[in-house]
Amino acid sequence: MIPRTFFPILALLLSLTPLWAGAQQARLEMAELMKLLVAKGYHDIREVTLTEDRFEVDALDDTSRRVRLVVDARSGELLSQERQ
């Protein structure tokens, strides 16, 4: 048997569900990612791959060296840069 106090608590939790869904940040659009990378000095962006919550990007850095970037798909934070 379910206690009567369970239903008001359940109703409250269900009413808060849209707040939880909105709290999750959306992924960056491709145009936003490009603007972000260009603003950081990267250019000649050749390949962009989305894997789970990260973008993997092949580009040239500000000294025209080929690099592989890993960018957080939600925040736009540069997670790593590796020379190729």
Structure description:
It holds the Pfam family PepSY_2. Keywords: Signal. InterPro entries: PepSY. It comes from Aeromonas bivalvium. The chain is α+β, with helices and mostly antiparallel strands and 84 residues long. Helices cover 33% and strands 35% of the residues. A hairpin with a 5-residue loop joins strand 2 (54-60) and strand 3. It is elongated, with a radius of gyration of 21 Å. The relative contact order is 0.15.
Q: Give the integer mean of the pLDDT values.
A: 83
Distance between the first and last residues' Cα: 64 Å
Rounded to an integer in angstroms, the radius of gyration calculated over CA atoms is: 21 Å
Q: How many DSSP-defined strands? A: 4
Class based on secondary structure composition and strand pairing:
alpha+beta
User: What is the share of helical residues?
Assistant: 25-40%
The side-by-side strand order for the widest beta sheet comes to: 1-2-3-4
Portion in strands: 25-35%
**Overall morphology:** elongated
The succession of helices and strands, N to C, reads: HHEEEE
Helices, by number, come to: 2
Domain PepSY: 25-81
InterPro entries: PepSY
Pfam families: PepSY_2
Protein name: PepSY domain-containing protein
Layout of helices and strands:
Blueprint (H helix, E strand, L loop, with lengths): L5 H18 L6 H10 L3 E9 L2 E7 L5 E7 L5 E6 L1
Antiparallel strand pairs: 1-2, 2-3, 3-4
